[in-house]
Design brief:
Layout lengths: L9 H9 L5 H19 L2 E4 L1 H16 L11 E5 L26 H8 L3 E6 L33 H8 L5 E6 L5 H7 L2 E4 L19 E6 L2 H11 L17 H7 L6 E5 L9 H16 L3 E5 L7 H16 L20 H12 L2 H14 L5 H22 L4 E5 L15 H5 L6 H6 L3 E8 L5 E7 L5 H19 L12
Parallel strand pairs: 2-3, 2-4, 7-8, 7-9
Antiparallel strand pairs: 1-3, 4-6, 5-6, 5-10, 9-11, 10-11
Helix pairs in contact: 2-3, 7-8, 8-16, 9-16, 10-12, 10-13
Length: about 500
């Protein structure tokens, strides 16, 4: 049997499979073996679909043997966040209320991955219904950061990020509502991108906040991230929020890595108090790299960004309150108290009390209050006005610069349990990522190095709506310079699981 390098990039693995140097089954088996060897410590996966993955890999090998055309990622193993439906595979959203549920249909993202020959290894852990910044809100226990098993891997897509960082999967899919791809990518030392809202189908994505939720890619390189992005993006008539416009070529942008002549804006409001010195130092180094590569760097003020946290935590819980009303014990999922003596209302109340965790209940209560009669205009209505101001800040900035940049997170990954009793401190992990989510534009996090505690920090690039390619160009330029300086990818320095 050929020895498979699970540390190789997705691009290298796919080209090796296409050339017949290694089989897709061998690649899948090597990653399944890696999961078995390390996931008891990481807990990235909630369900490993061993049989399904090997069956998909055999189909790729058959296509290779018969000379069929292959996609650029055919045979590459991928970890799927447990919030996108896949026929017959458990989808729980990290919640007890959906424990054991087997969807009867595929999400569009899953359909496109399967059509491209990507091998789906299983479902990854997440904060319940994507509500959290640490993956500690999962009903099935927390995920650990592969760099330091006592630290959080970010959230809500922490399982997907950890799977890639632990070399259990070459690629992963997460979802980003307020930073839930970019923040986990930053603290695990990998790349994660939030596409332009509406450019990746939400069909089959279990909704948290419908005007914010967006699926997107994780990988260990910018090119791999772009390749996965290109597979899942595109118009979908099944999704009423799907954009029908032509999408930019993110793969060519990632390969180009050219920032000469670009104007790059450093956001004044995303720095200062609350940002660790090591985070700010790595950010400054990345900005200097861009300047030395021929970009013009200017400071930009976006004053409304200061209100993004407050606006987000009114808008997202309000939409969550509406979306999660469907989990009522009547149609699917958990049912508690149905012994024949309880009313339908009592069964609903008992089921939701038992099935939802504390953070989900907190956000449902907050959102219901914000939408209630007499408070709607004062809270939800005002938050939407702030969202408009944030959008206007972005538009004004992009009139003079091509992209905006900032740290991805204010701090290195914090310790498991450190913020579980302080929701506001937990929410502040998303300070840098929330503005672009409220705006709807694309953003990407690329590794910027290690902070003062020796743990990863990220560099965030935010671009105008439908200019995802600009974000990839800048991220690739930063990556190329830093990888050359480090002598290899940052993730190669992770030592917790070696």
């Amino acid at each position: 049997m050929t020895v498979v390098d699970v540390y190789a990039s997705a691009d290298v693995i796919a080209r090796s499979i296409a050339a017949g140097e290694v089989s897709a089954v061998e690649v899948a088996q090597a990653h399944l073996d890696r999961i078995e060897a390390v996931d008891d410590r990481v807990h990235a996966f909630l369900h490993v679909d061993r049989d399904g993955a090997l069956e998909q890999a055999r189909a790729v090998d058959h296509a290779v043997a018969s000379g069929q055309p292959l996609s650029p990622l055919a045979g590459v193993p991928l970890a799927m966040k447990d919030v996108l439906t896949q026929t017959g595979v458990p989808t729980t959203c990290g919640s007890k209320i959906l424990e054991g549920w087997l969807p009867p249909y595929n999400s569009t993202v899953v359909e496109r991955l399967l059509a491209a020959g990507v091998v789906l290894l299983g479902r990854t852990n997440m904060d319940e219904f994507a509500m959290g910044s640490s993956t500690e809100n999962s009903a099935y226990g927390p995920t650990s950061n592969p760099w330091n098993l006592d630290r959080i891997p970010g959230g809500s897509s922490g399982g997907s990020a950890a799977a890639v960082a632990a070399f259990e999967a070459s690629l992963a899919i997460g979802t980003d509502t307020g930073g839930s791809i970019r923040q986990p990518a930053a603290v695990t030392g990998i790349v994660g991108a939030k596409p332009t809202y509406g450019s990746v189908s939400r069909y089959g994505l279990v909704a948290f906040s419908s005007s914010l939720d967006q699926a997107g890619p994780f990988a260990r390189t910018v090119l791999d991230t772009a390749l996965l992005h290109s597979v899942i993006a595109g118009h979908d008539p099944l999704d009423s929020t799907s954009i029908s416009a032509d999408l930019p070529d993110v793969v060519s942008a990632a390969r180009a890595a050219d920032v000469a002549g670009m104007r790059i804006g450093v956001v004044r409001e995303l720095s200062g108090e609350g940002y660790q010195p090591g985070v700010q130092a790595r950010f400054a180094e990345a900005v200097a790299i861009l300047e030395s590569a021929g970009a013009e760097v200017v400071e930009v003020s976006c004053p409304s960004f200061a209100y993004a946290l407050g606006a987000y935590y009114l808008i997202a819980p309000s939409e969550c309150s509406s979306n999660l009303a469907r989990f009522d014990a009547m149609r699917y999922g958990l049912r508690v108290g149905d012994d024949g003596s309880a009313s339908a209302e009592d069964v609903m109340r008992l089921t939701r009390a038992a099935g939802f965790g504390p953070e989900v209940k907190r956000r449902i209560i907050l959102g219901t209050y914000a939408l209630s009669s007499g408070y709607y205009d004062a809270y939800y209505g005002q938050a939407q006005k702030v969202r408009t101001l944030i959008t206007q800040d972005f538009q004004a900035a992009f009139a003079s610069v091509d992209v905006l940049v900032s740290p991805t997170t204010p701090t290195e990954p914090f310790r498991l349990g450190e913020r579980t009793d302080d929701p506001v401190a937990m929410y502040q992990a998303d300070l840098c990522t929330l503005p672009s989510s409220l705006y709807g534009g694309p953003a990407i996090s690329v590794p910027a190095g290690l902070g003062d505690e020796g743990l990863p920090v990220g560099f965030q690039v935010m671009a105008p709506v439908l200019r995802d390619d600009l974000a990839y160009r800048v991220a690739a330029a930063v990556e190329a310079a830093l990888v050359s300086r480090w002598g290899g990818p940052l993730i190669a320095q992770a030592g917790a699981l070696t």
